[in-house]
Structure formats: structure tokens, C-alpha cells
Amino acid sequence: MRAYSNWQWHLDEAFVNIDGKTLYLWRAVDHEGEVLESFVTKRHDRKAALKFLRKTMKRFGRTYVIVTDKLRSFGAAMKVIGNADKQETGRWLNNRADNSHQPFRRRERAMLRFRRTRSLQNFVSVHASVHNHFNQERHLYNRSNFKLNRAAALTGWRGLCAD
């Protein structure tokens, strides 16, 4: 468990259509933009938000601040858990979580959408871990350091794939 992920979380949901049915992709992103958890549900209510929050907290522990959009399901779930005082909502506060959907959407378009819920859940969990591994926050480094970090990530990936 990484302690730095407990500082601030950004929670958001996105709509995904499979065969004309709307599914909801819940996503938790930490303050550095790393995807912590992705979860697909059929419903968009307090029960689904509560299940997502409990799953994330079980894996990463409690957080100091949870930033959400103004979806009422998050507020209701926070009251049940007892984190209502840690929730922050605002007009642009949750941009980090909204922007974390973009790489997923690009890949979704390239794959010509999804056919089944299970394949969506499997893809989302794998895509998040791979994206976290290769996302190097390019704007924080000069070119030479960025290339070194990217080469180290690629070496690590090749080591994982070789085993």
C-alpha cells in the first residue's frame, strides 16, 4: 500500500454504452493523476457509489480529502461511511478525474467499443495499471530525464512480460 495515495482522491463516473445499455464506469484518481481503482456497474445510485467507495478504501485505506462532482450519490454514500466532512465539490475541482477518462476514451474508440460488461471491466483494470506505469508526467521533467524515466519504465515492462 502506497501511503502517498491517501492524501487526496478525485472520484468520478463516466457513461459507457454496450449494446444500447448504459453502464457506469466509476474511477478514483489520486492527487498525482494515478488511477487507483476502476469499477463498472449497471446502476448510478447510492448503493453503487457505496460499493465503489468501500472497495477503494479497503484497498488503499482512508483518505484526507475526497473531491467529487456534485452527483448526489457520492454525498449519500459519504454520509453512510462517515466521510461527509472530507468531501469537497466545486465547479472545476474534479478536472483531474474528468481528464483521466481521456486515455480510456481514445482506446475505446480504437477498439470500436466494447461488446460485454466483463470485457469492459477487465480492460479498465488492466488499462489503468499499464497507463500508470507509462504515464511519466512529461511536463515535470526536461527531455533527458524524461527519456531516462521512460526507458526505465519500458525495461521494467519487458521484465514483467518476460517472466
Automatic annotation (TrEMBL):
PANTHER family, sorted = BLL1675 PROTEIN (PTHR35528)
- The identity of this protein, by name, is Putative transposase
Q: Where do the DDE domain residues begin and end?
A: 6-136
Native source species: Octadecabacter arcticus 238
